[in-house]
Recover the amino acids of this structure.
């Protein structure tokens, strides 16, 4: 049993962000550790996943999940270790995937946990977790690239995009990785082995993209929105597919941007090209999760898919890391190391 | 054999329209009737279909079909009678559906024709033709409304929309018809029997739509674009489906409209609601055509589906009728009566 002197440290939503979140929208608190009841466990967080979708949950907008209440811990997937157990299914020391949120401890009744048995448990937050699963579902179930088709991937070195690039290449597609900055572009080309890697910050990015897609674009994996989408739309082929996983460039918008209005061009292109645009969240695809886990484990073991983690050390650094993530400052899947 | 004194009258594309087409973009010509060769037929146009998609074909933009060449007759589906035949499959007097375009005569080799045997052959251009087929495919194959779901239909008294409204009602959906003007709204409510019919020109249209859809919108059949789409998007439910059949409000755009930019709101909603937006053209769905024809004939015979034609008398009036169609001046499916 933990010494009851230990406190639960948690980061709560202090204020709903207006536009880009700032540090004072979040607040670090210490509260007493609760005692656990029959059937319950006390989880101690080892790693916390930081993901762009959390920005949406901080707002009051209608979304696929309810907003976080003010004063509540920010939501999030964690890798946790069982510190105390009054549940026969879990023993002290077990490592599980949980949804503890942004806090160092969490009392669980044992539901919605998944035991992990791997050397690098933080992978379960990235390439083997929801980021990898989003890449797998979005690309393979919605994008469905065929060999020889052209796939463009935005945020191509991020937690989701890096896996999309590699899956597209494994499927035999001509793969165009789009990232921001020379180091990410080099990584996408040399490590992820995209056929072409482009920097969306280049002044002539749209022309570069056109030159990189001489046969047009069949699948655009949307992670970003904004100018990258604008450059992709004119290149879409007949029956193009656009799985929408995120629109990080637009999460911090407080109102519709000034014009021109791009929506007529977007919708007319979807019509003319008989294209498909579909939003998805992985929680709708849990029936594919075991297959994903089996496929991805094999690809990682084979070396067909590589991964990169951006590990932030220390729970108290989560807010700054999250703000940086929304600004593209991460390089790879962001996880916060909370405890050893 | 026709007297060779008869001429072929045709309306050709004189100039590519900039924005809304004007009369001088089209030109009426008379040319000699060609002689027919072995295996050919001379078709005499009885009815010409006018449809919004023709606007797209007048531009040089990349679309699902090549643009009409300057000086060529404008494309279009026709109901025609065989006036001369050197083809064993067709006899003089047969009535066929053809693609003669905007002209009084056409020489065919007998391919891509469909013999018609019905009392009102012009129906084959409307409720039993591509307009009805577009309604059937877009609503039933892409929209897929379930009983009790809410379906909103724009341009609800037009050639496509009127059938969509009735099919949605037949499927047991709460059906919201959107049209422009009191007479069309009354028709949608009283004849098409929509559950609610709204005038998109009302200053408080968005609020009326919200009140008419207390459970949100599950299927939006897009025929229009513009302000109707803007009002629909905030009401979309989880897993909403948006078949895109046309965007008549936007066909005449010469450049992106002034802001604000609606595209972030549109794409974010597709993401949050895990919605699907899909463009379609009926030529991709020909494998469903016989089923459509059987279903629709039965529904018309039963009185379950009614239809309204807007018959324009006289071939020379086609340009003005087409300009009016793009401006919403028609009421029902527009056909031009070319000959008795």
């Amino acid at each position: 049993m933990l010494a009851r002197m230990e406190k639960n440290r948690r980061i709560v939503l202090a204020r709903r962000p207006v536009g880009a979140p700032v540090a004072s929208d979040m607040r670090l608190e210490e509260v007493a550790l609760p005692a656990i009841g029959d059937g319950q466990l006390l989880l101690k967080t080892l790693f916390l996943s930081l993901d762009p979708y959390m920005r949406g949950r901080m707002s009051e907008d209608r979304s696929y999940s309810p907003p976080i209440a003010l004063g509540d811990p920010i939501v999030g997937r964690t890798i946790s270790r069982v510190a105390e157990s009054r549940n026969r299914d879990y023993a002290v020391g077990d490592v599980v995937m949980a949804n503890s949120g942004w806090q160092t401890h969490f009392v669980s009744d044992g539901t919605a946990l998944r035991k992990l048995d791997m050397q690098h448990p933080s992978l379960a937050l990235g390439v083997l977790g929801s980021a990898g699963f989003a890449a797998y579902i979005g690309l393979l179930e919605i994008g469905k690239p065929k060999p020889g088709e052209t796939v463009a991937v935005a945020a191509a070195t991020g937690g989701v995009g890096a896996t999309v690039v590699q899956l597209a290449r494994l499927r035999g597609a001509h793969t165009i990785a789009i990232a921001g900055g020379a180091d990410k572009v080099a990584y996408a080309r040399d490590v992820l082995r995209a056929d072409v890697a482009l920097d969306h910050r280049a002044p002539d990015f749209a022309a570069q993209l056109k030159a990189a897609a001489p046969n047009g674009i069949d699948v655009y994996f949307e992670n970003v929105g904004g100018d990258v989408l604008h450059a992709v739309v004119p290149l879409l082929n007949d029956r193009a597919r656009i799985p929408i996983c995120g629109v990080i460039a637009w999460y911090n918008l407080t109102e519709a941007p000034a014009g021109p209005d791009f929506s007529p061009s977007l919708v007319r292109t979807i019509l003319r090209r008989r294209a498909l645009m579909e939003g998805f969240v992985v929680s709708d695809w849990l029936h594919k999760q075991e297959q994903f886990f089996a496929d991805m484990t094999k690809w990682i073991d084979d070396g067909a898919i590589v991964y990169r983690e951006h590990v932030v050390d220390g729970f108290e650094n989560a807010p700054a890391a999250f703000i940086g993530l929304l600004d593209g400052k991460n390089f790879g899947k962001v996880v916060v190391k909370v405890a050893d």
